[in-house]
Design brief:
Elements (H helix, E strand, L loop, with lengths): L1 H17 L5 H18 L4 H32 L10 H5 L2
């Protein structure tokens, strides 16, 4: 379960760096379908499927947020504070 959470988090980071927020909807739906199919095929209870689904969706969203703000963190880390800075986050979602 830990490896799954870390993998989904890394996928979220990649999505956050290169895609807009609308990519989370189809990826989350794909995760829902995959987890439900896995739970049905392994005859796991609905509570296990719900907890796994919650873990995957939360890790995906946290990874996306981290990937989104990592560009901004890198911008500040390099010290490029010349003139008026337009936020990477603000320009991406306009």
């Amino acid at each position: 379960m830990t490896i799954l959470a870390m993998g989904v988090f890394l996928v979220g980071v990649i999505l956050g760096r290169f895609f807009k927020v609308w990519i989370l909807l189809p990826i989350s739906l794909l995760a829902v379908v995959t987890i439900i199919a896995d739970s049905v095929s392994h005859a796991l209870g609905p509570m296990h499927a719900f907890l796994e689904l919650a873990l995957v969706v939360i890790c995906l969203q946290l990874g996306y947020a981290f990937g989104l703000f990592s560009g901004l963190i890198a911008y500040f880390w390099r010290g490029r504070r010349r003139g008026r800075m337009t936020s990477i986050v603000a320009t991406r979602h306009q």
